[in-house]
Amino acid sequence: CVIRYRKRGDELPVQTRFNMPMEVLYTVTPVLIVAVLFYYTAVVQTTVEKQSQNPDQVVEVVAFKWNWQFNYRDGVGEDAETVASNLGTDDLVPLLVLPTGRSIRFEETSRDVIHSFWVPEMLFKRDVFPGSIRNRFEVTLDREGRYVGRCAELCGTYHAFMQFELVVVSPERFDQFLQAKQGGASTADAMGAIGFTGDQRYATTTRPLDTRRQQQSWYQSNAAGK
To answer: How far is CA 164 from CA 90, 150, 204, in A?
Structure first.
């Protein structure tokens, strides 16, 4: 290039401009690509966001640092009441028991900061916001099993320990579970009422992690360094 296009005088080289076919090509092509992607995105998003007027089951997901509470509701909206609840603690991973083949409405809220409700097998996650913003979505589960759930939004010191377990059972067993909970049974006893025994009454996909909140922590009196 240095040799071929070296200056050979004061006359300007041929000036090329206004290549209309090229300009049309690099303008129209990206627009077409974006339009196609937008169409398929809109179709999928409409399907994912679709909600029914009367879902079969409503679950209020309450996130807090650093655990979960799952409230089974008797309807949708602010007038609905909680009929049963599962609460996680430092020593107990909360279970979210749900049926197959039924529409399930999740209504999410947080007591403090932004969290994120995530079950990897559900193929997407939803942020959980504090205040009056309630993230709502519906799913229908088609396969029984036990799946680990996590918070997927960095929410503080023990974010990595904020876990739960999704237990998917048949509709008949779910009705028995919910009936036992409404009768005052603990979650473990309600799991026993639908055929789970021993350690199966508790979380099996994950376990409570040792947070060492009262020992060798930076804010404790016995900390190694201050």
So the answer is: 12, 6, 10
pLDDT tens string 104-125: 999 999 999 999 999 999 888 9
Compute the distance between CA of residue 114 and CA of residue 214 in angstroms, rounded to an integer: 25
Burial 5-39 (b: 16+ CB within 10 A, else e): eeeeeeeeeeeeeeeeeeeeeeeeeeeeeeeeeee
pTM over 0.85, yes/no: no
Structure tokens at 42: 């809109």
| DSSP letters for 71-95 | EEESSSSTT--EEEEEE-BTTB--E
Q: Are the C-beta atoms of residues 62 and 68 closer than 8 Å to each other?
A: yes
